[in-house]
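COURSE: Structural Biology Practicum
ASSIGNMENT: Worksheet 4, Part C
STUDENT ID: 0417
INSTRUCTIONS: Below are two proteins. For each, the amino acid sequence is given first, followed by its structure token string. Answer the questions at the end about the second protein only.

PROTEIN I
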Amino acid sequence: MAVAPCVGSLADQEKLEWFGTVRGRLGMLASPSWLFYVTGGLAYGEIASNETLTSVGGGAVLVGPLSAAFNTTRAGWTVAAAWRAWSVANWTAKVEYLYMDFGTINSTYTGVAPFSPAFLSTHVTDNVVRAGLNYHFH
């Protein structure tokens, strides 16, 4: 008697709950009212991981959807490039692109036969574009 194979899928989702950066800045004044600059340094944040295992049993094994979740605070690195322009009456406009890399997160999903253990490896990055207006009080 042949036993039907057990087939499953494991979905992983990473979410950056919050982040902060500590950066140095180096800039160049392109004209009296235009500043271009780059920044780089430390990025840190909380990463929420959610895994869902869905399988269809073979033989005597029948497993429905199972989930696992964990949070971790990670440190990584960041770089950014930006433009700032001065306009009239103490106002400035700015645009910034920020890239953050939090490295690789390795985790193990256990306890579900015949899929146990399942090893997960994800690389967490994020991209942020900011635009703004600032008023400078003198």
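PROTEIN II
(use this one for the questions)
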Amino acid sequence: MIPGRLSVLAHMMTPWRYMEPSYMEKIAPDLYGGDLRENPAFTHELAGIMHSDDPVGYCYQLMATVGWTSLPWLMFLRQRTLILAGDDDRLVPLANAKILKKLIPRSTLYIFHGGHLGLLTHAQELGSAVERFLA
């Protein structure tokens, strides 16, 4: 994948965003982009929800980011595939969704105006997009 901004990825290297809600609240707008930069109330709520003292989930998340790629096999997918991507995703840039679109034969790319947490911040819009795709 094409990585996100280095300043954003640096925030991913520390579990503090899960262990200290005030730190999460501080970095979330830069980390996730989209509505979190414009909606401090949502950012505050998110920081409380994502709080955890257990580092195991954080370790699993880091492990998931290294060492494996599905790119060589994407062209073999035969089922219709919906790709959802935010135009302000700072962790997984939009270019990655465009690569998926080119490599998956029966894919549809839906780009929404938002960031990495689009399923939370744009649930209504993305739910409608999924419904249309499945119809």
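ANSWER KEY EXCERPT:
Q1: DSSP finds eight helices and two strands in the chain.
Q2: Residues 71-134 form one domain.
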